[in-house]
TrEMBL record:
GO terms for molecular function: DNA-binding transcription factor activity; sequence-specific DNA binding. Keywords: DNA-binding, Transcription, Transcription regulation. This is HTH araC/xylS-type domain-containing protein. Residues 221-319 form the HTH araC/xylS-type domain. It comes from the Bacteria. The keyword DNA-binding applies. Pfam families: DJ-1_PfpI, HTH_18.
């Protein structure tokens, strides 16, 4: 299998070397060079990672020969503006990449983190369900609204398309690729060799509300500040829209564009974060915690907690005892 690993300047070094490690261990398990990889750039001879490590490029895009797998690795996220500028730069190479892929026999595409945005800019993701890092949801809503994005899964496999969340999700998407191309037995041996932990089933457990403040919509910021200050109080969409001096529909649209979720999804996230904080740092009864974060029914909060963090309140508290 000939694998092209397409990298940009500022690539996450651990993602690049980690993917190569997984491929290399798969070869060792099989005792043959099943995977043959090369680092590909748009036109540079060296790629410098976000940490300053230099990687020699094996091939520039213009010289790319037929491949079986194309892996697009993201660079370190530096904000939506910078990511969009990079996407616009990549878009200029879309015709060249299309030509190169035509000479390959239906290659498999793998993309993770910001690499999913790069794949979108290169025109490789139309009409397919994809995932990406949870904090890129607002970016995709703004710049690629036509795509079917679901940021809940750690990774998604759709025939010959594999997409993944943040940088270290590469482990799980690469294992899925190996399982499909070689078999479960080899994938499980790679897991053993590299001591890869069991994956979270969902990205929701990693979402942090503080990362959702990095936008320029002052109206949305006003509503966010109000929600944080009045978290235990009941909210209605009408009252929030009135506070923002916009219609309910406009508030939902602007929240999804700036924050990547609806106002009530944001409220639920804040309440779950506060619940987790109080479970860690206080001895309050769970029923009292529920009331303090705006839930009249503590059982409803318990269900939301388990759905979001992947474990029950009891299991979470038991885990704290052993820390």
């Amino acid at each position: 299998m000939k694998v092209a690993i397409l990298c940009q300047q500022g690539v996450m070094a651990s993602a690049l070397t980690g993917i190569i490690d997984v491929l290399n261990v798969a070869n060792q398990v099989m005792r043959t060079a099943f995977y043959q990889w090369q680092i590909v750039s748009l036109k540079e001879e060296m790629v410098i990672s976000s940490q300053g490590a230099a990687f020699k490029v094996d091939c520039q895009l213009k010289d790319l020969q037929p491949i079986d797998v194309l892996i697009i690795i993201g660079s370190q996220y530096q904000g939506d503006k910078h990511l969009w500028q990079t996407c616009q730069k990549l878009n200029r190479y879309a015709p060249l990449l299309s030509e190169k892929l035509k000479i390959s026999t239906s290659p498999t595409l793998v993309a993770g983190c910001c690499g999913v945005a790069y794949a979108a800019a290169l025109g490789l993701l139309d009409k397919q369900r994809i995932t990406a890092s949870w904090w890129l949801e607002a970016f995709f809503n703004r710049y690629f609204p036509q795509l079917e994005l679901d940021t809940s899964p750690i990774y998604l496999c759709n025939q010959k398309l594999y997409t993944a969340g943040a940088a270290h999700s590469y482990m799980y998407v690469m294992l899925a690729l190996i399982k499909q191309q070689i078999g479960t037995d080899v994938a499980e041996q790679v897991v053993s060799w590299l001591a890869i932990p069991e994956p979270q089933l969902s990205q929701t457990a990693f979402i942090t509300s503080s990362a959702l403040d990095a936008h320029q919509d002052a109206t949305v910021h006003t509503v966010q500040t109000h929600i944080k200050a009045q978290l235990r109080q009941p909210f209605t969409l009408k009252s929030l829209a009135s506070l923002a001096c916009v219609s309910e529909r406009t508030l939902i649209r602007r929240f999804k564009s700036s924050v990547g979720m609806t106002p009530f999804d944001y409220i639920r996230l804040l309440r779950l974060e506060k619940t987790k904080e109080l479970l860690i740092y206080s001895n309050q009864r769970f029923a009292d915690i529920a009331l303090s974060v705006g839930y009249q029914d503590h059982q409803a909060l318990a269900k939301q907690f388990k759905r979001h963090f992947g474990k029950s309140v009891a299991a979470f508290r038991e885990q704290l005892v052993h820390l």
